Amino acid sequence: MNPPDEPPTGLIAGVRAVGREPSPERVGQRWGFGAFLLVEAVFILSAVFITAIASTNGTDPFGSVAFILIGSMVPTVLAAALAVVITRVRGNGPLIDLRLSWNWADVKIGLKLGLLGMVLTYLAAVIWSRIVGTDNATSAIGELVDGAALPLGAAIAMFLYVCFVGPICEELIYRGLLWGAIERQGWSQWAAFVLTTLIFAASHLEPLRTSLLIVVALPIGIARLITRRLTASVVAHVINNFLPGLTLLLVSLGVMPG
């Protein structure tokens, strides 16, 4: 029999266990929703600050390669780093508090749900673009690089961010820190899944794309839900972001039309 913090491995076993086992205890965790709100505030304020600095220096924020890289990456990385620091100062560290323990079974589940999410995202994006129109179907990062001839190094850096760095940071914040804050309140795993999915979608600050982002977030959240660890959701998020990241790379290099 598996201990409370070690749910059954495997996709089917994990699904069956959801709702039957209590949320894991969070002994030694002295942070909650306040920590998440602080991290979100740092994310938003740093993005505003970078934009303001670029504008005051006479730089076109939407045409500068430096702004595209810094404005896209720094706020998310800074917020995720703060989340890790909070768990070290006010808890047991990220491995315990953010459920970062490694498990190959979680990797397999993440791969399966990531591939499923890739298909769902593609289908949802096709339907959604037909509803809102192709002119309104571009993401915030897509709008930044659209029309900007990025150097090879910058294009590769953006690809690595979209496919790997961004997903890891976002998982630390939403299905790590926020999920942990919800668990600390004694709420159910399903409540954590629903709330993190909705907040993740809304936090991108792209109202037109919120419904699409909810679809994107569902398989990623399910990976976290059935394994109770962050590894599976990180893998699912990375797989789900691969095609958009590759497309962004090819468009920014001028290989594909925007």
Report the mean per-residue pLDDT as an integer.
85
What's the total helix number? Answer: 10
Q: What overall form do the CA principal axes indicate?
A: globular
The overall number of domains is 1
Structure classification: mainly alpha
Poorly predicted segments: none
- The span between the termini is 53 Å
Helix percentage range: over 70%
Order of helices and strands: HHHHHHHHHH
The number of E-state strands comes to 0
Q: Largest beta sheet, briefly?
A: none
- Rg calc: 19 Å
Beta content: under 5%
Descriptive notes:
The protein has 258 residues and is mainly α. The protein has one domain. The chain contains ten helices and no strands. The chain has helices spanning 11-17, 33-56, 65-90, 94-97, 104-132, 140-145, 152-184, 189-202, 210-227, 230-252. Helix 3 runs parallel beside helix 7, helix 7 runs antiparallel to helix 8 (189-202) and helix 9 packs antiparallel against helix 10 (230-252). The mean pLDDT is 85. This is CAAX amino terminal protease family. GO terms for molecular function: endopeptidase activity.
Index terms:
258 residues; mainly alpha; 10 helices; 71% helix; Rce1/LyrA-like_dom; CAAX amino terminal protease family; transmembrane helix; endopeptidase activity
Summarize the structure.
This protein is mainly α and 258 residues long.
Write the layout of secondary structure elements.
Blueprint: H1 11-17, H2 33-56, H3 65-90, H4 94-97, H5 104-132, H6 140-145, H7 152-184, H8 189-202, H9 210-227, H10 230-252
